[in-house]
Write a structure and sequence with these properties.
- The protein has 890 residues and is an alpha/beta fold.
- The strands form 3 sheets. Strands 6, 9, 10, 11, 12, 13, 14 and 15 form an 8-stranded mixed beta sheet that branches.
- Strand 1 and strand 2 form a beta hairpin.
- Helix 5 packs antiparallel against helix 6, helix 8 packs antiparallel against helix 9 and helix 15 runs antiparallel to helix 16.
- The two termini are 45 Å apart.
């Protein structure tokens, strides 16, 4: 975790009174002019006092109280017709709504304030509102929109030569580039802001900028430079006698020293920070010291500090800090070979996540990133421990919730359901253990509260009695640590360990029978002889979890390091994208890791459909293209990808009558830049033929080609059809949802985030026949692929078909002809139609391809020439393997 100061510029406009405003109350108009003016002046003064009081409450984080003051001021300004005052009150309200994470309300009042400032030609305060609007979108992770408002503000401030506004705006822009991982650009912008603040003599803002620069240097691994700027920030804090600022600087230095494994220096600055008598950051410092002792292997001391931190966090209602500390205690217990007890603490930490999500929007972005990474690690560590104890159904649920969490971290819009809302329930013995621990924690909270109050007093100002009391309380804390150590060895915990020991317990069938029956019934109802496959990638191995309709969950362990797995994934994906390569070697290697250990189980289940929830980097390769040495996996099984079982409706059957809306980008060329990457897309000649063939196959098809294929025309009509087919470029790239997009025939783009506004409640299938997943030279975590499937599901569509790389234009036309040829019969599912289309290309059986296959010379989507004999190479997985079905496969 890192910390930075955030600066929000408050409006400081002079109040302008208007006696002729139509908003002036009628009762005032009948008073003498002098009396009217005096009344208005008094009311304006009252409103100004309300603003001042609200601003003070805002600085004290009393946001609801501040909002009430600003609303009263707004009513007065409306009554007396003071537009400038009204704009100022609205701007303050926007800032409060931002802190309360009520983004819609914040945007509403800030847009009103902006319109008034523009009407009054109040340029400086117009910039203030633009900055605050940008801050809303920055906190929401909508970086392109935030950047747009910051840029408008920057242009305005430079035009009116307002260096203060320019510096503040550059700080915001720097934070955006930092959040996007563009560290050198962020550093450049922060340095520009720093120069302006130094020119202005704004020492506080200079210190805040130095902290921001320290975060960038830390992210770049340039620790010496980070320490240098943190030291400069510390000097400013001490010069200004700003004790919270001083503590923050020391805390960040401690984090850097910890990263450098210079533990003695880390302890030194942490102790300096702890000695500063302010409440802010107390628990974080104590937890940081605990982490140092944890790294030194001094577990009892680390545990003592973690418990102190946890007590303070509980007392302060800091659920984010509490979550981190619970996770740290789980890590410590795992290292002490107490997996059963570690599981209890990991479960508690994960069950706090729902509450933490609401608080994330008010945290700085680097803290959010730290949170996201640590959450995923916690899920994986918990699943690891559960699997080692053969608690397979619990582990499967953890992996399912992990996928939901990854989606929410990426999209920030994931709707849970009754299933996900249950979290991870404790077993009865675990609950008893946790309840017993609460009694110890409550003691720690009482002691921690009093200690915190005493430590806020500077040592030189403490009385002898206070020093004596601190010593007494520290002795009591030590006794609490001993109580916890005794608790670990207590009969009830030993009973928990015995009950949950793999050799003593009765698998998952006793404690999770309802969950197992629910999963099995779901699979049986599909009538597809389906099984559910969840792989889990760990540092030293792969865990495979297979759920079948008729047997307990099955766990198979494959000893392969994550590094080796990722290298094979990269090699496989590279081979798949080259139609001249031999992809079978890496395909067989991956088969030996992912499928071969389950061959006997799949055979025993008589499986015909694999419902597959890939983990992390496995999302970048198609399971269908694995090879057993004799044939491709798709020749043996239907493959149905899902985002997460808890979010997927697998049983709803498609509507009997197919109605297709098809759009194609066939001619033209569009170039643009998105997320720092340049794209140059030419029309797809075979896309037009693809859509024409589709219309012949399904006569009830509505077509939009090229310029007619626009978002304005196409999107509103989608829900009138059962299938939406988009034969156009789309790119799903590692980054944010705003970086991934679908290109329409008129050159407009819809981002992955925009899809959440679509209405697809009647749509059975969305087909994106020309998309690709761009990795930018390295593997991501596959959230962009996971996110596509979820966004379509969230909009109402039952399933989506997309491609994992850019495919030859003519090859796609051939596969889509075959797909719809099978699907139109009405006797086959979406998953089976895709499987049969892929087998058609593999075997060269052209009967399903339609007469028009090859009627247009196949052109590559990437404009690379394709030899005339391309039609004879369609058996290569380059042509058929990239297409995956996500969601309901019926």
């Amino acid at each position: 975790m890192h910390y930075r100061l955030r600066y929000v510029r408050l409006a400081t406009a002079t109040l302008v009174l208007s006696l002729t405003s139509p908003l002036l109350p009628l009762t005032l108009k009948f008073e003498p002019l002098a009396a009217q003016a005096q009344t208005i002046q008094d009311r304006a003064t009252e409103a100004k006092h309300l603003l001042q009081k609200g601003s003070q409450q805002y600085r004290q984080a009393q946001f609801k109280e501040a909002l009430a003051q600003f609303q009263q001021a707004l009513e007065i300004y409306q009554q007396i017709g003071d537009k400038a005052g009204k704009a100022e009150a609205l701007n303050h309200m926007g800032e409060v709504y931002n802190q309360l994470s009520q983004d819609n309300e914040a945007l509403k009042v800030l847009q009103q304030a902006l319109a008034i400032r523009q009407q009054l030609n109040d340029r400086s305060n117009e910039g203030t509102v633009l900055v605050n609007l940008a801050a809303i979108y920055l906190n929401a992770g909508q970086y392109p929109t935030a950047l747009k408002f910051f840029q408008q503000a920057l242009d305005l401030y430079r035009e009116i030569d307002d260096h203060t506004g320019e510096a503040s705006t550059r700080t915001g822009i720097g934070l955006i580039y930092y959040s996007l991982g563009q560290y050198f650009k962020a550093l450049e912008i922060h340095q520009q802001a720093l120069a302006l603040y130094r020119e202005l003599g704004a020492r506080g803002e200079e210190g805040g900028t130095l902290l921001n620069m320290g975060l960038v240097y830390t992210s770049l691994g340039q620790y010496s430079k980070a320490l240098k700027v943190y030291q400069q920030a510390l000097t400013i804090a001490r010069e200004m006698d700003n004790r919270p600022f001083e503590r923050m600087s020391l805390l960040n230095m401690g984090l850097v020293y910890t990263s450098l494994r210079q533990y003695s220096k880390a302890l030194e600055v942490y102790q300096q920070a702890l000695a500063i008598g302010v409440p802010a950051g107390e628990a974080r410092i104590i937890r940081g010291i605990g982490f140092v002792y944890y790294n030194l292997g001094q577990y009892p001391k680390a545990l003592e500090l973690y418990q102190q931190a946890l007590g303070i966090e509980r007392e302060e209602g800091d659920s984010v800090g509490e979550w981190f500390t619970l996770t740290n205690i789980g890590d410590l217990l795992k290292e002490q070979n107490s997996p059963e007890l570690a599981i209890v603490f990991y479960k508690q930490s994960i069950n706090l996540i729902k509450a933490i999500r609401k608080e994330l929007q008010v945290l700085p972005k680097e803290q959010q990133q730290s949170y996201t990474e640590t959450v995923a690690d916690t899920y994986r560590r918990l699943a690891d421990l559960l699997l080692k104890q053969d608690r397979i159904l619990e582990a499967q649920r953890v992996l399912d919730l992990l996928k939901v969490q990854e989606l929410d971290d990426y999209l920030s819009n994931v709707r849970g359901n009754n299933n996900t809302a249950q979290g991870l329930p404790n077993l009865s013995s675990e609950q008893q253990t946790w309840t017993s621990y609460q009694a110890i924690l409550n003691k720690a909270m009482e002691i921690g509260k009093e200690l915190t109050q005493l430590r806020q007093i500077k040592p030189e100002n403490r009385t002898a009695e206070q020093e004596q009391r601190i010593a007494q309380l520290m002795n009591v804390q030590q006794k609490i640590v001993e109580d916890f150590n005794n608790f670990i060895e207590s009969p009830e915990v030993l009973a928990l360990v015995q009950q949950l020991n793999p050799k003593a317990r009765k698998a998952d069938l006793v404690n999770n029978l309802d969950q197992l029956i629910g999963l099995q019934d779901n699979l049986k109802n599909l009538q597809q002889k389906a099984v559910l496959l969840y792989p889990l990638i760990l540092d030293d191995r792969i865990e495979l979890i297979l759920t079948t309709p008729d047997s307990p969950p099955i766990r198979r362990t494959v000893q392969v390091p994550k590094k080796q797995l990722n290298e094979t994934i990269v090699a496989f994906r590279s081979a798949l994208q080259d139609p001249k390569s031999n992809a079978k070697a890496s395909a067989q290697q991956l088969y030996s890791w992912l499928i071969k250990p389950l061959e006997a189980d799949l055979k025993a289940a008589n499986a015909q459909t694999i419902i597959y929830a890939p983990d992390a980097q496995l999302r970048y390769i198609p399971l269908a293209a694995l090879h057993d040495g004799q044939q491709w996996l798709v020749q043996c099984y239907r493959i149905n990808n899902i985002t997460a079982a808890s979010l997927t409706d697998l049983n709803t059957k498609p509507q009997p009558q197919m109605q297709v809306l098809a759009g194609a980008f066939a001619t033209g060329r569009y170039s643009f830049k998105v997320g720092g990457e340049f794209f140059d897309f030419a029309g797809l000649p075979s896309a037009g033929v693809e859509v024409e063939n589709l219309a012949k196959t399904v006569p009830s098809t509505t077509k939009f080609i090229d310029k007619a294929f626009t978002p304005e025309v196409t999107v509103p009509k989608m829900d009138d059809y059962t299938i939406v087919h988009l034969a156009t470029h789309a790119a799903f790239v590692v980054g944010t949802p705003d970086d991934s997009f679908i290109l329409f025939g008129n050159g407009e783009r819809i981002t992955l985030r925009d899809i959440q506004t679509w209405s697809l409640k009647n749509v059975d299938l969305v087909v994106l026949s020309a998309c690709e997943t761009g990795l930018g030279g390295k593997l991501g975590n596959g959230e962009e692929i996971l996110g596509l499937g979820y966004q379509m599901q969230r909009a109402g569509a039952r399933a989506a078909i997309a491609s994992l790389w850019s495919v030859n234009d003519g090859g796609t036309q051939a596969l889509m002809n075959a797909f719809y040829g099978h699907l139109k019969t009405g006797n086959t599912t979406k998953a089976e139609a895709l499987r049969q289309a892929q087998i058609t290309l593999i075997t060269g059986n052209s009967t399903a391809l339609g007469k028009d296959r090859g009627s247009v010379e196949p052109e590559p989507r990437n404009s690379t020439p394709v030899p005339p004999q391309v039609a004879n190479r369609l058996s290569h997985p380059y042509y058929w393997a990239p297409f995956i079905l996500i969601g309901n496969g019926l």
